[in-house]
Structures are given as structure tokens and as C-alpha cells.
Amino acid sequence: MLAEMEYTHEPVLLKEATDLLVWDPTGLYLDCTVGLGGHAEAILQRISAQGKLIGMDMDPEALELTETRLKSRTGTYRLVHANFRDLGSILESEKYFPLAGALLDLGVSSLQLDKPSRGFGLQGEGPLDMRMDPGNPLTAARIVNEWPAEQLALLFKEFGEVPDAARVARWIVDRRAQSPLETTGDLRELIESRTPRRGGLHPATQVFMALRIAVNRELENLTRGLETLMPYLDSGGRLAVISFHSLEDRMVKNVFQAYVAQGQARLLTPSPVRASIEEVRRNPRSRSAKLRVMEKL
């Protein structure tokens, strides 16, 4: 099953991201969220024998599959199990700077989303887990079964932009008083039984997204990662970020604009790059993707 996922995974905005990112084939490149290795593989194909790539990910299962994917490729690379919020210490310990470019491909990989036992997706039945790193003590089940209604409502409103967030939080608290919510099906069925479907979006989608962001501290990690990377970029070095929802994209846009205002960078994408009609048709998950790239001056 894992091998099958490796080959069906399609990286989003692959050509657009690597075209803008890889400007020096002899440089050092960092894939901060290597996932299943699609972007990493493309970077290796573009750099020379003098170039190097380091790939980081908090998911050890993804790193194992990426190693299998890359081992037959030419080029120097190293894979590291780490969260990109810790990339400063990683780069220092590896003496891996200045960087010609760094890439962050945010969100959930196909491995995580399509495997019910990871608890990320709406389809299938699995534990309410949602941890990218299995060593993380916080799970989605702990949040929905232990957090007070007010904290749940704030989470759903801020991270998921959930309509009637307070009402959804109350449904969860009332339901768990009878028995704990233990599986993705428990939570999905609770929400869909009380919320009509509007358009093609499942009514539980935004709740699941908010829980995933909270479990993995995604927005906090993104802020730290973006702030940490800048000093490690070489002059002319590029930072590319692919985001999948408005909260992430807004943060990236604001950080990039701040660097531009300070005279430290210029934007290579005045407006975000979106997936083509052909890519969206081939890979519907690319529909919400936005690519922003800046260059350090």
C-alpha cells in the first residue's frame, strides 16, 4: 500500500516552483517539508554535481518513502527527521548555508490524507489522530474530548473559519458527555447529521482542518520557519512557499511584504501562482494551492 502511494502522489505546482526556486545549479537547497519527495526529486534533477539538497520532514514514514524514491537519483542529498521550526539548529549542525533556495510545501501529503489509520481524512474510518509526527503527545481526540467548549469554538473560528463555530463546539461537548469521540467517523457523522451540505464541501472539512492545524502547531511553526530562514539565505537566494488555505497564504504574504518593505528582498511573484486548469483537472487537490516566491537582496 505504501509503495502504491509513493507512485500515485503528485506534487503540486512542481514545474512552477522549481523553475522559480532553482537558479544556481551548484547551490545548496533546502526542502523544509519534503513529504513524499516529489519536489526534492525535481530539485535534484536541476542541480549539478556541485549542488546539494537537504530534505526535512516531521513524518518518519514519509522520509522512508522519500529515501526509496531518491536513492536511484544522482546528486548529493540528505534527509533529516525534524520539524522546520527547528531548521536553524539543523542548518547550523550540518553547516548547511548559505542557501541558494528553500521550499516549504505546506498542508497534508497524500500519504497522510489517504491513509485512514493516520486520522487526517474525512473518508474511511480511523482514530482521531492527525499527528504528522507520531512522537507528538497531542492528538485530535484529546482536543475534542478534553478542551472546553469556549476553547473549541475559538479554535474552529480562527483556524477553520467555521460558520457557527460555537454551535459546533457545543455539539461536540454534548456528544462526548455520552461517550468519547474516538474515530474520524464519530466526528464526521456528528457534524454531517446536523449540518446540511453546501455545494461540494463536506460540512466537517473546516473542523478537520482546524484540528489538524492545532495538533501540529502549523501556523506557529510556519511563522518561526519563515523568520528563521532569512539569515541563512545567500544573496540572491530564494524562498518559495506553497500554501493551501487563506490563513497560511496571508501569513506568507505579510512576511514577504515586510522583508520587501525593509529592503531585504524582492517579490518574484507579485501575485500568487495558481495551478493551471490542466493540473486541477489531473489533481483536484491543487485547486486551492498558491505559490509565493521572494528573492533575498
Distance between the termini: 45 Å
Q: Write out the CATH superfamily name of the largest domain.
A: Vaccinia Virus protein VP39
- Compute the CA-based radius of gyration: 20 Å
So, CATH architecture of the largest domain?
A: 3-Layer(aba) Sandwich
User: How helical, in percent, are the residues?
Assistant: 40-55%
The H-and-E topology, N to C, reads as: HHEHEHEHEHHHHHHHEHEEHE
The helix-and-strand class reads: alpha/beta
CATH topology of the largest domain: Rossmann fold
The overall number of domains is 2
Taking the sheet with the most strands, its summary is: 8 strands, mixed
Flag low-confidence runs: 1-7
Please tally the β strands and state the result: 8
Portion of residues in beta strands equals: 15-25%
What is the CATH domain class of the largest domain? Answer: Alpha Beta
Shape: globular
Q: Helical stretch count?
A: 14
- Average of per-residue pLDDT values: 91
Tell me what you see in this structure.
Helix 2 (about 15-20) packs across helix 3, helix 8 (about 150-160) crosses helix 9 (about 165-175) and helix 8 crosses helix 11. This protein has 14 helices and 8 strands. It has 2 domains: about 1-110 and about 220-295, Vaccinia Virus protein VP39 (Rossmann fold, 3-Layer(aba) Sandwich), CATH 3.40.50.150; about 125-215, DNA polymerase, domain 1 (Orthogonal Bundle). It has helices at about 1-10, 15-20, 40-45, 60-70, 85-95, 110-115, 140-145, 150-160, 165-175, 185-190, 205-215, 220-230, 245-260, 275-280; strands at about 30, 50-55, 75-80, 100-105, 235-245, 265, 275, 290-295. Helix content is about 45%, strand content about 15%. The longest helix has 16 residues, at about 245-260. The protein is an alpha/beta fold and about 300 residues long. It starts with a helix and ends with a strand. Strands 1, 2, 3, 4, 5, 6, 7 and 8 form an 8-stranded mixed beta sheet that branches.
